[in-house]
Amino acid sequence: MRTFLDLVGDRTAVRRFVGSAVVAILLRAGVLLLLFPLLSALFSGFPADAWPWLGALIAAVVANWWAEQRLFAAGYGIGFDLLTGVERRIRERLEQLPPGWFDARRRAEVQRTLTTAGQELCTSFAYVVTPTVSAIGASFAVGVGLLLVDPLLGAVALAGSLVVAIALLVGGRLLRASDASFAAASNEAGSRIVEFSRSQRLLRASGRAGSAESELGTALQRQRRAAVRLLGWTVPGNLLFTVAYQLMLLAVAATTVHLFLDGALDAAEVVALLVVLVRFLEPFVTLSELAPAVELLQAALRRIRTFFDAEVLAEPSSSAARDLSAPAVELRGVRFAYPGGPDVLAGIDLVVPRGSTTAVVGPSGSGKSTLLDLVTRVADVDEGTVLVDGVDVRQLRLDDLLGGVAMVHQDVYLFDGTLRENVAAGRPGATEDELRAACAAAQLDGVVERLPDGWDSRVGEDGARLSGGERQRVSIARAILRRAPLLLLDEATSALDVLTEQGLVSTLERRADDSTVLVVAHRLSTIARADQIAFLEDGRIVECGTLDELLAAGGRFADYWRLREQAAGWSLV
């Protein structure tokens, strides 16, 4: 219910639902309890005494019908509010989470939750929550009412209700454990399906295009076994409920017979009481039928709760004022480690002057891409400070920080839309001339001419219809179109041929007159054009300076440069 209250935006609707539930429960209990005096009078020696009770019962039934309609209308209202708003609320929450939070398992959970949460919660509130609240409340209210008929009978009925409720909870716990296993297996299968579809070229090249013997096949088998276990664990839960229900029925019947033998009840009252008790037990059957749906609903709510309980990047209410005379980027004593792992960066100090190009160079795994991630707050430092325009990035709102940054990743992600839409994502309000100029600067115009529908050609999911180099050019065009004062390049030209790369580097250099470029690079042509080179190794900057200074020093960078020069002349024979 706490999760529901977090997701329902209209608290007036919640209060209306609670009020309607209380009224409907009391009236429903009143209808059942009125059967006792009505039937007692009807089977007594004076049947005419039943007329007033019959009138009261008819009035209670009409009032109960009206209250039930109000209750279900309120439930539907909350359900439709969830349908229209839950995806938006979850999406807003996801936007606040650090990108590092989204591992393979959580990506599958996010996809499942965003595509099903609204519909699940809408239908569940109307068809599961409302009947469950009504059944539980009515049973309790009738049990309290039976205390007025006879304290012993009422106590036995309430105790029996407690036993049945415990049986339902235990059965639900058994089902919940199996559902968690099934959910984990389903999430793994979902992520493996995505992985399998994306790696088709590699799998076919290695002769492993089939899914049966792959990780996907293993994941699907695990999912099937989990589904069988999930179905199997419903049997013990149902059996436990049946035993508890029968014991309660036996206890209530035995108590009624005991009261009759002791003379506390006459025959007419016993007949009336048996009818009332049968109706009293009906909500428990309803609860048993709803139990699997309740467990599935709880599983959906737990998935949603994981997003709301995850730690988000803290943002100030307003951004601090920037100092445009300060370096564009500065790192002071930065240390960072991923959860549970060793330090990726340790004691990093780096100044990136405004209007310059700084190349970050080093062996694989030295922390180069992580350094760029800290600048854009993909994650926050464990120690030290990252400053942009003289301001700690944690004192800037994310919109303000990222609004002045354009980034090109080595692994480019493109939307399954048109080429125009993917480039225009850099600045949706750009004019047609600006769009074409950015594409020309990124040498993308040849790609536009090659595609059958030109600008309106769809690139496929993740840009599957484009080559790796073409996808990188789309990403570079998108970055150029942003006209951001800070440009971050993470191996942005790794999939391009040498001539294309040289043209793009020249274009980016011309842009450096009014922007700052921080580039992670391996190619010598990119490194040689940088105003400053920082050599990163084992999470530390071991050397920093111009190309001539570092070569003259004869240190680690000089060794790296020499090896790269030698590798440039290698050939396969």
Automatic annotation (TrEMBL):
Cell location: Cell membrane
Transmembrane segments: 21-44, 50-67, 125-149, 155-175, 230-253
Domain ABC transporter per the UniProt entry, residue ranges: 329-563
Pfam family, one: ABC_tran
Keyword Manganese: no
Keywords: ATP-binding, Membrane, Nucleotide-binding, Transmembrane, Transmembrane helix
Topology of this chain in the membrane: Multi-pass membrane protein
Alphabetized GO MF terms: ATP binding
Superkingdom as given in the UniProt entry: Bacteria
PROSITE patterns: ABC_TM1F, ABC_TRANSPORTER_1, ABC_TRANSPORTER_2
Domain ABC transmembrane type-1 intervals: 20-296
InterPro entries for the chain: AAA+_ATPase, ABC1_TM_dom, ABC1_TM_sf, ABC_transporter-like_ATP-bd, ABC_transporter-like_CS, P-loop_NTPase, Type_1_exporter
Protein name: ABC transporter ATP-binding protein
